[in-house]
Amino acid sequence: IGENIQLLVDRPDGTYCFRLHRDRVYYLSEKLLKLAASVPRESLVAPGTCFGKFTKSQKFRLSVTALDFLAPYAKYKVWVKPGSEQSFLYGNHVLKSGLGRITESTAQYQGVVVYSMADVPLGFGVAAKSTQECRKVDPLAIVVFHQADVGEYVRNEDTLT
Amino acid sequence: KEKRGPGRKARKQRGAEVELARFLPPEPESGRKKLSSHGRRRAAKRRLGAGGGPAARRPLGGGGRGGGEGEREPTGQTARGRSGFSDSNSKWLAPAKAKKTQPKGNHVELSSDGEVEEGWEMEEEEDGSSEEEMVDDYGASSSEEEELLPIEKAALKQKPDREGLSEDDSEEEEEEEEEEAEEASKQKMGQKEEEGPDLQLNLDIDEQFKLPTSEEIEKEDILFISEPPDLHVIHQRIQGNMEVLQDFGAKREEGRSRQEYLALLRRDMAAYYSYSDFLLTKLMDIFPLPELVNFLEANEVPRPVTIRTNTLKTRRRDLAQALINRGVNLDPLGKWSKTGLVIYDSTVPIGATPEYLAGHYMLQGASSLLPVMALAPQENEHILDMCCAPGGKTSYIAQLMKNTGMILANDSSAERLRSVVGNLHRLGVTNAVVSNCDGRQFPKVLGGFDRVLLDAPCSGTGVISKDPAVKTNKDEKDILRCAHLQKELILSAIDSVNAASETGGYIVYCTCSIMVEENEWVVDYALKKRNVRLVPTGLDFGKEGFTRFKDRRFHPSLKCTRRFYPHTHNMDGFFIAKFKKFSNAIPQAQKDEEPAVEVAAPSTVPDTIVTEPPPKKKKLEASKADKEQKLPQPALKKKHSLQAQRRPLKA
Q: Which of B559, B581, B603 is the last residue of a domain?
């Protein structure tokens, strides 16, 4: 979402911040932060919303739970046809045949937010091909790598936190 | 032993058509209104055999019909009503002339008792004869002195051992008839005994309206072990028993106490509905008998699936539209809820639609919406939800607060917290902090909340329809343990609230159980121990809580609490109580003021309905003593110290 990060931090109703707690990054308002601080650390499970986690090799993986916050600010969006909506929700990558729309000038390997045709955010992905290439490629080629989708709420309930 | 013929059941199973074919050509009878198979058969009989003239039968039949009595005879028995049995059972069926007079006498009584059983019996019979027809037959039989009862007798004869037999419609009918007759008159007893020793066991059962003696009960027990209990038999016995108990003066048997009837009823219900005796005893204390049966029946059936719209993300109307488009059959929940929807059926799994995944709604029981509605959280408040898993109520609180303010969602179980986190994230709740403390630690961890919701862990007797194991695995110790935990939790909850908050100072205590020990008792305990009072929950439906129960007397304000039952409200059993803390409690800061607080005797007794505890010191001691009496727990000490810290200042 690029420079829209600023919008996430300075919200009209108070400053929000990111906090690291046990390898996960949480997003919460400062008021909430004060409260969360008083809970003993072992007991604290989730202050605010989890945005992602640092993996063992210290890579940052964005989590689907951040979807609602990032979706409005996403600069690169991909719309998926109803037919392959379900397939994406099961964790599959998006094929060209399922691609509805894509924002112009999406670079390759750009992080994107995947939407359904009804503008309901479905998850995150990585563009496998830039917009120009998408036009040229055959229908069965992967255009968006699946990274996170809302189906995970049901599939991976345990690992969400 | 009577030789049994091919068996009435065999005959019945072949169906009415077969019988009809056997008896008569299908000729409509003139001068009669609707003639069903029954009527046609009788017409054929009339043509066939002699017996009492049709004329004699009609008026009696008419009279009987006017009485609206239930027909006991299976349709097949009409044939037997005649002196010369024309059906295949004539070999072994013989009308007992000796009993002709009595049945006539019983006629009227039977008819009055028949009402209850009638519908049931009509289900039993595979031939759905109209009542009219049956009445006809009834009249016919009595006119021919082949009354109902002789037919019963005849049927009795073929039943050597009712217990051991598999369900036989006719047997049930007879039993039922007999039961009713029993209630009506005791002559049956004599009649039955005439039948002979082979009916000995039959006596056991019919006895409910003649209570079996203890030996007979033992006999039954042995039979129960050797063969599976005959559920129909038990069911009828239950019904008969209840009828007797409801009109005990008239229908009881001499020399049998109410206790014995109740004991048998309990045993039967335990066997029929698979409850433990302990639980059934408790339930019998709470509910009057007819309601008890409704309650037990309601627990066999699951409650309808309900969902709650997540107003943070969508509107109820839009959600309903979207779900209907997916093929879900739903309806708004009721006037009392603006966000609930009840699902009747659906082609797609409700827990997996894209709307669910997008967080537009949450699967939640209807009764779980109520405590949050009672809590009425306002925006920008600090709210504590102890025992929040799986997060339905917490998210509802958040949506009512529109993600402002702050919620501390706590649960003592880490695995269940995962579902809380998942749900909160999915539903887009941003103002929640999730923690994993024991609820009893609360005021120490963090206090000064505006409102607290305590959905206490309970025995689950209100949600038996979701978890039938509760029927048998709860006993006295479990209930008491739950109650103890709930008492500790509620005190912690009360202590965590800031009574001086402008918008709040409320605690809502709720459980999904219907036991008085867990509900009213705990509430009463809280009233005695803390400066709180009960306020109306704001829910205008639901049954009021008990103010007295058996030998306990509760505070009169308990009328403000609400109980919900599966059989009356079609939601899980629930209990909700809303407290207001009226004295200015200053959380953690109380430690400093402790000496002053303890010394100061409360001069102003709050002008509320709370039963006033003695001055604080005594209260401390009393509560200490109280605690000693209860199950010793390590938490006791902590509680004691908490109490010392938390002595609220009297207003």
A: B581
Q: What is the least distance, in Å, from the CA of A117 to any CA of chain B? A: 12
Q: Are B420 and B488 in contact (CB under 8 A)?
A: no
pLDDT at A128: 79
Q: Does B584 touch chain A (CB under 8 A)?
A: no
Give the nearest chain B residue to A159 (CA atoms). B418
In terms of domains, do B335 and B392 share one?
A: no
Cβ contacts of residue B581 below 8 Å, gap of 6+? Answer: B494, B497, B498, B499, B505, B506, B507, B530, B531, B532, B648
Q: What is the pTM of this model?
A: 0.61
Residues B328 and B394 in one domain: no
B233 is a domain residue: yes
Q: By C-alpha distance, which of B577, B575, B571, B573 is closest to B364?
A: B571
Query: Which residue, B140, B169, B148, B58, is CA-closest to B96?
Result: B148
B326 and B412 together in one domain:
no
- Of the pLDDT bands very low, low, confident and very high (cuts 50, 70, 90), residue B110 is very low
- Of B364, B363, B448, the C-alpha closest to B406 is B448
Same fold, A5-62 and A69-156: no
The predicted-structure confidence for B558-608, as pLDDT tens digits, reads as follows 888 888 888 888 888 889 999 888 875 433 333 333 333 333 333 333 333
Q: Where are the beta strands (DSSP E) in B442-542?
A: 451-455, 506-511, 532-535
Q: Residues A141, A143, A147, A151: is their CA dihedral positive or negative?
A: negative
Count of domains in chain B? 3
Task: Choose among B344, B257, B242: nearest CA to B296.
Answer: B242
Radius of gyration over every alpha carbon of chain A, rounded to an integer in angstroms: 17
Contacts of A36 in chain B (CB under 8 A): 433
Q: Do B433 and A43 touch (CB under 8 A)?
A: no
- Tell which of B273, B293, B318 closes a domain: B273
Q: Is the Cβ pair A35, B445 closer than 8 Å?
A: no
Which three-class secondary structure string do you get for B344-409?
A: EEECCCHHHCHHHHCCCEEECCHHHHHHHHHHCCCCCCEEEEECCCCCHHHHHHHHHCCCCCEEEE
CA atoms of A8 and A25, how far apart (whole Å): 14
- DSSP lists the bridge partners of residue A62 as A52
DSSP 8-state secondary structure symbol assigned to residue B497: B
ipTM summary value? 0.75
The 3-class secondary structure across B410-441, one letter per residue, is ECCCHHHHHHHHHHHHHHCCCCEEEECCCHHH
Name the residue with tokens 């599939």.
A155
What is the tens place of the pLDDT at every residue in B260-296? 878 888 888 888 888 888 888 888 888 888 888 888 8
Residues B349 and B251 in one domain: no
How are beta strands B406-410 and B432-435 bridged, if at all? parallel
B263 and B348 assigned to the same domain: no
Nearest residue to B183 via CA among B105, B254, B259, B243: B243
User: Does the structural domain A69-156 have CATH classification 2.30.38.10?
Assistant: no
On whether both B422 and B539 belong to a single domain, the answer is yes
On whether residue B117 sits in a domain, the answer given is no
Handedness of CA B47, B49, B52, B58 (dihedral sign): negative
> Which domain covers residue B247, as residue numbers?
214-273
Q: Do the chains contact at B433 and A47, CB–CB below 8 Å?
A: yes
Whether B145 and B151 have beta carbons less than 8 Å apart is answered as no
- B620 in contact with A, Cβ within 8 Å: no
Please, what CATH class does the domain formed by A5-62 belong to? alpha beta
Q: Answer whether residue B483 is part of any domain.
A: yes
Same domain for B322 and B391, yes or no, is no
Q: Are A95 and A139 in contact (CB under 8 A)?
A: yes
Catalytic residues of B: 512
Give SS3 for B83: coil
- Give dist(CA B175, CA A66) in Å, integer: 67
**A93 strand-pairing partners:** none
